[in-house]
Amino acid sequence: MISLSAAIDGTLGRLPPHIRAVVLILFATLCFTSMHTVIRYAATVGQIHPFEVAFFRNVFGLLAVLPFALRHRAAALRTKRLKLHAVRGTMQVFAMLMFFYALSITPLAKVSAVSFTAPLFATLGAIIFLRERIRMRRIIALVLGFLGAMIIVRPGFIELDLGAILVMTSSSIWACAILIIKSLARTESSLTITTYQNIFLIPFTLVAAYFFWTWPSWTLLAMFAVMGIFGSMAHVAMAESLKLAEATAILPYDFVRLIWATGIGFVIFGEIPEIWTWIGGSLIFASTTYIAFREAQLRRRQAAPELL
After folding, report:
1. pLDDT > 50? residue 2
2. Based on the structure, what is the number of domains in the chain?
3. Which domain holds residue 268?
4. What is d(CA 184, CA 192) in angstroms, rounded to the nearest whole number?
């Protein structure tokens, strides 16, 4: 597999693993936020339907990783788990279309804040479908996390925010995809997972885009190319950072996404996030970080007798 941490530059490759992991996660947050900015700009300023933007994101995302995937006799394309890749792609297309549509109608900072609920839904899914045991402290963390989401949406106090609801629904579907990715990561490289993601999402998003198709300008096509590159680099960088360090060590840095989104949203779109977005986003993020920390503790305790 081609390691993005080594490909960025030689200096990064000489850094200690945990520092490389931090650099990569920060790079991933910037790439994700930049991609979201292009989506919002194309939908609001360029008047391109978000479903069509999703199609171009996957096309250019595949083109960005394909040269690496085809190296060494296309080693990254070899897989014995094609059906699981297909299941993940089918699920993720719904999450992607909802998320992209939400970006077209909702400020960047609010989308970023609500999207932090994905790990909460993943934990809930593991409890329901994988029968994982859960103790009181994690239950409290889950409740507080979803309370943070309610603080952002504030149902009954303000008009129902369709964008926030779509992001939460998208996050719940994405959480199921996370469980599949965890399973795939046992045998597949991050490059293989990212490549097959784009391969399966292209036809699905093309069908969705067909009903709203408008030919974009050359300027927008160039922006879509940048968006696809950002998206693929973000996914690979995130996967690489998780291989270099424990999730609990790097997860706190994911909060930087909200900072990027606030700054870029203000500069480009004149968006000023409400204080409730910061309060709710912080509460969601704190709860997901605590859950990840507790899960890591439990794994270490379970592994300890095996080391004796």
Report:
1. no
2. 1
3. 4-307
4. 10
pLDDT > 70 fraction of the chain, expressed in percent and rounded: 87
- pTM, two decimals, is 0.83
CB 234 within 8 A of CB 35: yes
**Nearest residue to 238 (alpha-carbon basis) of 283, 178, 278, 284:** 178
Q: Phi and psi dihedrals of 299, rounded to 5?
A: -65, -40
3-state SS, one letter per residue, for the chain: CCCHHHHHCHHHHCCCHHHHHHHHHHHHHHHHHHHHHHHHHHHHCCCCCHHHHHHHHHHHHHHHHHHHHCHHHHHHHCCCCHHHHHHHHHHHHHHHHHHHHHHHHCCHHHHHHHHCCHHHHHHHHHHHHCCCCCCHHHHHHHHHHHHHHHHHHCECCECCCHHHHHHHHHHHHHHHHHHHHHHHCCCCCHHHHHHHHHHHHHHHHHHHHHCCCCCCCHHHHHHHHHHHHHHHHHHHHHHHHHHHCCHHHHHHHHHHHHHHHHHHHHHHHCCCCCHHHHHHHHHHHHHHHHHHHHHHHHHHHHHHHHHC
- Residue range 127-143, pLDDT digits in tens: 777 676 777 877 888 88
CA-nearest of 35, 31, 33, 66 to 53 is: 35
247 pLDDT band (50/70/90 cuts)? low
Most confident of 100-114, 140-154, 237-251: 100-114
Farthest-apart Cα atoms in the chain, separation: 64
Phi/psi-derived region of residue 72, left when phi > 0, alpha when psi is between -120 and 50, beta in every other case: left
Q: What is the 3-state secondary structure (H, E, C) of 110-149?
A: HHHHHHCCHHHHHHHHHHHHCCCCCCHHHHHHHHHHHHHH
